[in-house]
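Lecture 7 notes: from sequence to structure.
We start with the chain below.
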Amino acid sequence: MVKRQDTIESHMSTDDPEDSCPQEQEVVPVASASNVDWSSTAQPNTHLFQQSNLGEEPCQLGSDCQHSKAMRMKCSVCKIVAHEGCAPRIQKSLPCKISFITADRDYRSHTNVGHHWIHRKKIKGKCRHCSKGFKSLGLFCSWCKLAYHNSEVCKEAADKDEICGLGIHASLIVPSTWILKLNRNGFIESSINLDKEKINSDRTDYSINFMIKPVPVSNCHPLIVFLNPKSGGNQGVKLMQRFQSLLNPRQVFDLTKGGPGPAIEMFRHVPGVRFLACGGDGTAGWVLSVLDKIKVEPTPPVGVLPLGTGNDLSRHLGWGGGYMDESISDILIGIQSAEVISMDRWKLATTPNKEIAPTEEKGQDLPPLDVVNNYFSMGVDALIALQFHEAREANPQKFNSRIKNKMYYGQAGGKDLIGPKWKKLSEYVTLECDGQDMTAKLKEQKVHSILFLNISSFGSGTRPWNRANGAQKLDDGIIEVIGLTTYTLPLLQAGGHGSCICQCKTAKITTTKTIPVQVDGEAVRLNPCTIELSLLNKAKMLAKKKSNKSGGGLDYELEEVDIEVRSLTFKDYETHHLDKESLLQKSQVVGNIKADIGCDLTRARGLISRIMPGTSDWQFCDTITARNAFRITKGGEGKHFLIDICLNQLFVVSSSGEGPTATGPADYNQSNNEVATTAQDETTPNFHLTMSSLREGCGLLEKTSEGILKAARLGDLELLTTLHAEGYSLLSIDETAKTALHYGARFGHKEVIRYLVQKAPQCIVDMTDNEKGQSALHKAAAYRRRDICCMLIAAGASLLIQDKEGRIPHELVEEEDTELKSYLESQKQFQEVAMQDMETAL
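Predicted structure tokens for the same chain:
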């Protein structure tokens, strides 16, 4: 599991001058270089070089540069600068940060993301080791943005800092260890030789070449970013480079390269996933419509970064009326703390009226969209939107900024407001709301536009609905109907309101003339027809909180699913492991289990043992990762989750002979908290228990679990307490004999430490790993966890234990931290005196 450590903000270079979008003339993107490679030949650490005119940063090769007069290039991901001729050498000597790993049967053994250190001339913030500022070249991690001086002492500290915590945006980042590139065109090596004739086809679709394997973590919300480069004066290209730098570049997608569908399909099973639509209101609607078609459950929330002209949905959700070169890091912090709310979405069912004689004005039989997120209108306002669209299509170079776009709206609006063309709109329209005829009211108000408003904002921030006529809510299943005239339309900009017709749950509009209509800013001329408007569904949206500093809003409950367990004989598996359909046909249902998607296979074996108590001689079969099915070894079960190997059908394979059969209850629900302890055989890992003298009497007959260690690494107290309540040992250790207390101390999780010293056997405080021979107090001292040092000492941790290099805890404290060093030395003296008194008494 990726270590999501709490970083010290004072050491972070979050005020990177490049965090705001650079001016348009400074960066010119190279064609086809701004998007990552998803083909079968993709490499995990390829730079995304762009042409750059920024001359301050030196070429990364320094004195070895041989192309000083050539064009300068800059990687949009790690910000390395190189001349065009130096770029190939840079790629070999200092590749970019790794964005994915190569899949094999043991892919879960790749648990950590390492730092990606680069030399950088200008670094803001302070050195992680000595807490001093930077005056010259330093080491900078392109993942977490931590920095160290280039001095010998600080570089040595950087070498020890092996695991990257991914920085302040860790909860939004898709770690490289979650993205697997499949070998052999979609196959993974199996213990059974693969038929080469069946795998020789070449596949380049990234949905086939790549697989997402998330680790279910309750405080993690991976953010998938969609950008429309054509929105808001072509800001999308520059924003893509910033998102690629702050996140994993493989979670940032250009909507012009196939739309949002492939990416949504790829990340649909990632727990807690969120989507960010960067563009106009139409871009957000596009993402929501694709989510409708793919039917992702549970529905992930969608945020909006406004790049369009009106941006009314963004305004309503609190993200503002347009992106104005704000810090992308600040925007991501806002996404991290955003509130998930529901939003009504409305369906338009249109039936053309063929009985009306055709007119000279040509139109279409269907509206531009059949789903309303923001508003649906007809009349003069739609005509203005239509004319703007036609003008932009004819001369796109004249509409490359939000200000120019609004100027056109003002000019076009003035012409049509003066003209009398749509003053008789109510003569061509009849309106029914919830079965009641409202046509007379339209004629009474002499409306020139009819607006069905789902959100509060319309026309670049105006508020047409008067709340005195009823509260306007986003999720009440009611839409507001408003009449607008040539008089009230301009007054909206001054805070005025339209004529509030009614609020309704359904509406029926019949037209007898070709009339301009618009749906969420998309406009057409619509031939005579009947339009029925009704509630379609409710979408999940991300609304900005007034304060972004709370960091809240990230917790969510892991989904509990009903999983059908099916058994296979080894012979059937051996014969059909390349054909999943045949595996399904040959398998037999043995029962059902209920488990959350965060359940690892060790726990799942306990659940399955309740419906198959007669045998444990079987293995899990992964049927979703690759084109072939393959088995998970018993020794690897603790590293994998149910979400890794199945969706709603779980396959188990007999190790030999006949397949497992159900001899117990047909169903078992994990919520009963009665997970059975499975028999340990020769292939089940014993976590390398080498400290036998210390472990005697410490309760090691309890069940061990990798989950205990993962909870401690992540600071997930709820998961830790749940596992402990289910009988899993707080003394669980990994292959290096580190305990949960080691990991809690290493990553500074105080609540985890407090729980462990209260609930675990006393021996845990002095257990040492077999890698460095260090106790949890050694880790806390080395990583300057002052409060945790106090907690461990109060719990009885020894300050006299030596690690493999003969160092006691206070000797691992950096010299600059005199306060912590003095405290540990004084506590060591107290312990020495106490031991002498005890020996004297004896």
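Points to note: The mean pLDDT is 80. DSSP finds 24 helices and 32 strands in the chain.
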